[in-house]
């Protein structure tokens, strides 16, 4: 009955396919989860301590709407040194409640009713629902395995209509781990400029690139004025629960985002901002250690998957692999369901990340080598058993 009170655009939203799976897994025993998209590390101790200290010193009130000025300055310095992109902490940097809020604010700030926003699937599950909530229409383009799940400029151009306002890019990517090179970003930027679009560049995994340094599309000539860079502390500093992210971009857009933020959130959590300041000032070593460990796990898992016949490209970043399960003849949903029931390993069906994810599963390797080893043994058993009985 109370459903009749719901707004239509909310009724139409589907619950996240990832959650559904985890509710199922949480009712079972002895499950190894390769499902969750978060680090297995605890936040570095110096970051926790800095946050404690801020509380001891009585920093328990709101900060400026846009975030602590020292933190914004530190974010500006980090972006300048890492990606050669330059933003003024006064009016171009906004500290948010996770990258999630930054994505929401960016879309609400730029989308008019009916505007189209291009998303490159397979992609993070929040983009399309957030576009709908902002009144926009998401238009998907499929990145495919034959191009290592990287979108091409031609694909983007083909999806552009007179209603297209923006495109969401994510590199390194969730769920595929693909990284767009500097040259690939340059080519995409040419299409974006030709059609006068804005880019939402989700760079939350930028610190987790294993083979070459990540570039930001904002660093391409002419792109700083049409790019909103989204990032945060969840992945690189193992701070998912702290809920801290940020957005940087052109002044007018950042002012609009700050206005929405001011009315709907006031500011990001103060103690988390003090922790983040420490993370940026003294967190390099911890990031390096975590990265070394992720790289080792990535190599281990990719080898194991290919050996069991699930073909898998070597992803350049993030902490996911995206192997094909087509050989088994199962849909990604059936594969994940059966693997969970028969061998107690939780993975995410690729189809929840968009249609082009069908035929693949996402496995997170942000868990110990010991757990990964056991998970790969179980998966191998499952694949061997099922490829004997299951006609593709
Ligand atoms: N973007 C991507 C691509 C993600 O994978 C995630 C988290 N899974 C987020 C944004 C949201 O991160 P946060 O915890 O900072 O809200």
TrEMBL record:
Q: Which InterPro entries match?
A: Aminotransferase_I/II_large, AspAT/PAT-like, NHTrfase_class1_PyrdxlP-BS, PyrdxlP-dep_Trfase, PyrdxlP-dep_Trfase_major, PyrdxlP-dep_Trfase_small
Supply the enzyme class, top level.
transferase
Q: Which cofactor does it need?
A: pyridoxal 5'-phosphate
- Write the Enzyme Commission number(s) for this entry: 2.6.1.-
> Which of UniProt's keywords are assigned here?
Aminotransferase, Pyridoxal phosphate, Transferase
Which GO molecular function annotations are given, in alphabetical order?
pyridoxal phosphate binding; transaminase activity
UniProt keyword Transferase, yes or no: yes
Give the source's domain of life in one word: Bacteria
Q: Which residues form the Aminotransferase class I/classII large domain?
A: 30-378
List the Pfam families. Aminotran_1_2
Q: Name one GO biological process term.
A: amino acid metabolic process
Claim: Nucleus is one of the keywords in the record: no
Q: Which family does it belong to?
A: Belongs to the class-I pyridoxal-phosphate-dependent aminotransferase family.
Protein's UniProt name: Aminotransferase
**Organism for this UniProt entry:** Gracilibacillus orientalis
């Amino acid at each position: 009955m109370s459903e009749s009170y719901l707004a239509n655009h909310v009724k139409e939203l589907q619950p996240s396919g990832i959650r559904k799976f985890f509710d199922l897994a949480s009712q079972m025993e002895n499950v190894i989860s390769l499902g969750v998209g978060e680090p297995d590390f605890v936040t570095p101790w110096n970051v926790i301590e800095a946050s404690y200290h801020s509380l001891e010193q009585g920093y328990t009130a709101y900060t400026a709407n846009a975030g602590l000025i020292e933190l914004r300055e530190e974010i500006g310095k980090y972006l300048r040194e890492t990606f050669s992109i330059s933003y003024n902490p006064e009016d171009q940097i906004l500290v948010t409640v996770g990258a999630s809020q930054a994505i929401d604010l960016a879309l609400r700030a730029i989308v008019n009713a009916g505007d189209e926003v291009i998303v490159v699937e397979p992609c993070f599950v929040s983009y399309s629902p957030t576009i709908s909530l902002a009144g926009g229409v998401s238009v998907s383009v499929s990145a495919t395995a034959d191009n290592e799940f990287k979108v091409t400029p031609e694909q983007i151009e083909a999806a552009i209509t007179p209603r297209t306002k923006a495109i969401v890019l994510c590199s390194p990517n969730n769920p595929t781990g693909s990284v767009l090179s500097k040259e690939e970003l340059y080519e995409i930027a040419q299409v974006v400029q030709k059609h006068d679009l804005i880019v939402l560049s989700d760079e939350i995994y930028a610190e987790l690139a294993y083979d070459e340094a990540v570039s930001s599309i904002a660093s391409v000539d002419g792109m700083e004025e049409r790019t909103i860079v989204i990032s945060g502390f969840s992945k690189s500093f193992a701070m998912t629960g702290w809920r801290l992210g940020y957005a940087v971009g052109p002044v007018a857009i950042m002012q609009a985002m700050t206005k929405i933020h001011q009315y709907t959130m006031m500011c990001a959590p103060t103690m988390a901002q003090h922790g983040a300041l420490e993370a940026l000032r003294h967190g390099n070593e911890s990031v390096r250690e975590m990265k070394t460990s992720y790289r080792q796990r990535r190599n281990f898992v990719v080898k194991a998957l290919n050996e069991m016949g699930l073909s898998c490209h070597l992803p350049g970043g993030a902490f996911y692999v995206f192997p094909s399960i087509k050989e088994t003849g199962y849909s990604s949903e059936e594969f994940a369901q059966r693997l969970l029931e028969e061998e107690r390993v939780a993975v995410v069906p690729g189809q929840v990340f968009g249609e082009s994810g069908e035929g693949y599963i996402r496995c997170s390797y942000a868990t110990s080598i010991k757990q990964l080893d056991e998970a790969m043994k179980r998966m191998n058993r499952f694949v061997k058993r099922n490829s004997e009985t299951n006609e593709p």
